[in-house]
Design a protein that fits this description.
Largest sheet: 5 strands, antiparallel
Radius of gyration: 39 Å
Low-confidence stretches: none
Mean pLDDT: 84
Strand content: 15-25%
Helix content: 55-70%
Number of strands: 5
Oligomer: single chain
Shape: rod-shaped
């Protein structure tokens, strides 16, 4: 029962965690799509001929715009990974690790747990008119989701613990209801076998054990009566 309870707990925790991480991944991908369109629009409106130089000139504006709209922090780099603009004070190691894949045109999503904090990390290339002009590295705080996840798992733990205790109590009671009468009958049978007929069994109920106890008392009474009859006959002889 305990094994099943622990297995259920682990399974549900994993489902909740996977759901939370999928939600973060989808959120970051949504930010990527929207921010990429914002960058394209900004550079197109400015009518720049060379988009990579335009990115360098508009970097600070784009940083501020994306940060405010998506409640995030980010940095913009050129195609070689050289920093153009940033509002990140502490650069995550994932930015450097993701650089080779960013250069290959891939979008990378990392989910980072740090003590009681949860951070989503997004790295993706900026591609305009099939031209690769730079890289966006973005971080967003998802700690509220982690707090909700922990609350849900704590409630789940309490419910499962209470359920296990309840099942254990019911099982213990049912077991005692069966085992205790059987022990009483076993002890009474031994006494009867030793010739001790001063036996009193008081097991109430209508279940099989109670019926068996009543039949045992009835059998004991009949044996005792037969022995008394035999002794009377013996005295007559």
């Amino acid at each position: 029962m305990i094994f099943l309870g622990v297995s259920l707990h682990i399974s549900v925790r994993k489902i909740l965690k996977d759901s939370m991480e999928n939600s973060i991944t989808n959120s970051l991908k949504g930010i990527m799509k929207s921010s990429r369109e914002s960058i394209k629009y900004t550079l197109s409106v400015r009518n720049y001929i060379f988009k990579d130089k335009a990115l360098a000139q508009e970097g600070n504006y784009l940083i501020e715009y994306i940060s405010l709209n998506y409640e995030s922090h980010l940095e913009i780099s050129d195609v070689n990974g050289e920093l153009i603009a940033t509002n990140i004070t502490e650069k995550p190691i994932e930015f450097t690790n993701n650089l080779p894949e960013d250069k290959d045109g891939k979008t990378i999503v990392n989910i980072k747990y740090n003590n009681n904090n949860l951070t989503g990390i997004l790295s993706y290339p900026i591609i305009i008119n099939k031209s690769y002009i730079g890289i966006i590295n973005l971080t967003k705080d998802y700690t509220p989701l982690l707090i909700d996840y922990k609350k849900a798992t704590n409630v789940l733990t309490l419910i499962e613990t209470a359920l296990i205790i309840f099942i254990f109590a019911i099982s213990y009671r049912l077991t005692n209801k069966i085992v205790t009468p059987i022990e009483t009958l076993t002890s009474a049978s031994k006494k009867l076998g030793e010739g001790n007929y001063d036996i009193d069994i008081n097991i109430e109920g209508n279940d099989e054990i109670s019926i068996l106890s009543q039949e045992f008392i009835s059998m004991k009474s009949k044996i005792q009566e037969q022995i008394l009859d035999i002794e009377k006959e013996k005295d007559k002889v």
